[in-house]
Amino acid sequence: MENISVIGAGIMGHGIAQIAALAGYNVVLRDINDDMLEKGLQSIDRSLNLMIRSEKITVTQKDKCLQRIQLKKDLNDSVKEADLVIEAIPEVLSLKQELFQQLDEICSPETILATNTSQLSVTLIGAKVSRKDKIIGTHFFNPVPVMKLVEIINGFETSDETLQTVQNFCHTIGKETVVCRKDTPGFVTTRLLLAQRAEAFRLYEEGVASIEDIDKAMRLAFKHPMGPFQLADLAGLDTGLKALTSMEENYGERFKSPTYLKQMVALGYLGKKSGKGFYEY
Fold it and tell me: Is 119 exposed, middle or buried (0-12, 13-18, 19+ CB in 10 A)?
């Protein structure tokens, strides 16, 4: 495997492109928007500079990394030589299904098609493609260059060969992996994360403790780098609300969103990206 295509230059996509290029892969980063491509490249440059300052890489490694990344808008041109395509577009099932159908028609029959979804069904995303044995989930975590885990999700017909190939790829880019062998909503990590977050929301709603103390408890007692409210703000409260709603539909009341979360999203309090959520930024 030599050539990787990443579809979507947002926060997850450009992070995946960066670590793959650092590991020596030829990378095409594709987006339909010139501004997104330029912002993605700027973010990669900033991230690499931080790695230089912390002595994780050298200036030479940074330069070689950037040389391995191509920015493209045309889908055909972006994936024609890809051994592995990783999709990192918005979490909308219809958009991902449409993209995978296009990729199935364009890519070599040997190309593996991976989705970076955090909770949508991998099987459904690839339901209309012919290469169902080469459909797989690769759930990276934000920020991609820092977080060590990739959660790999088997689709209903994912082959053992595809799973092994993707595991090997993840290890070459410095990641550890866990495998979700059943394509169930939320997989392993999102299900655990949202269950914890829902309980934190209930603690606050019941007046058991303040937001600050709940976050502090998780950081100091369990060595989490962030508390659940801080992490919700970082990820986006609108994104979190959609995820909880989806999980509630599948698993019931234990994932029910609190009324105050719905109200905050309606008012535009979306967390760090809007300047205000559970905390002000």
Answer: buried
What's the rounded Cα separation, in Å, for the pair 193 and 250? 16
Kindly state whether residues 145 and 48 are assigned to the same domain.
yes
pLDDT at 281 over 90: yes
Contact indicator for 17, 27 with CB cutoff of 8 Å:
yes
Supply the DSSP string of 76-122, one letter for each residue: HHHHTT-SEEEE---S-HHHHHHHHHHHHHHS-TT-EEEE--SSS-H
> Could you tell me which residues are beta bridge partners of residue 26?
3
* pLDDT score recorded for residue 235: 87
The whole-model pTM stands at 0.88
- Hey, which bits of the chain come out as E strands? 3-7, 26-30, 69-72, 84-87, 112-115, 135-140, 149-154, 176-180
Domains: count for the chain: 2
Q: How many helices (H) and strands (E) does the chain have?
A: 12, 8
Could you tell me if 206 and 105 lie in one domain?
Answer: no
Question: pLDDT band at 106, cuts 50/70/90?
Answer: very high
Domain extent for 232: 190-274
Nearest CA to 141 among 99, 189, 179, 197? Answer: 189
State the angle between helix axes of 11-22 and 34-53 in degrees (0 to 180), rounded to the nearest 10.
50
